[in-house]
Amino acid sequence: MQLFKVQGMTCQHCAKAVTQAVQDQDSTATVAVDVAAGEVQVESRLAPDVIIGLIGAEGYAAKAV
User: Fold this and answer.
1) Contact in structure between 14 and 39 (CB atoms under 8 Å)
2) Sheet strands (E) in the chain
3) Of 34, 46, 26, which is closest to residue 5 (Cα–Cα)?
4) pLDDT per position in the chain (65 positions), as tens?
5) How many CB atoms within 10 Å of residue 62?
6) Is residue 36 within 8 Å of residue 3, measured between CB atoms?
């Protein structure tokens, strides 16, 4: 399980966008978004830097924890 701190998420639409971005690249990925905490947990074959890039492409700043 990979954990990321994500800035800029404010609603469930944000959570859906982040989830979809990761799952578009790894359809088997499990993504759990906690908007209030600004955290995203990802279980995926994708490398952390790839996930950070995908989240960034959606307009959110992310870093691995």
Assistant:
1) no
2) 2-7, 30-34, 39-43, 61-64
3) 34
4) 999 999 999 999 999 999 999 999 999 999 999 999 999 999 999 999 999 999 999 999 999 99
5) 23
6) no
The tokens 């990321």 sit on which residue? 4
Contact 38, 5 (CB under 8 A): yes
Crossing angle between the packed helical segments 12-25 and 48-57, to the nearest 10 degrees? 130
Determine how many CB atoms are found less than 10 A away from the CB of residue 10: 11
Host H or E run for residue 20: helix 12-25
Give the distance from CA 19 to its chain's centroid.
6
Residue 39 DSSP class? E
Residues in the chain: 65
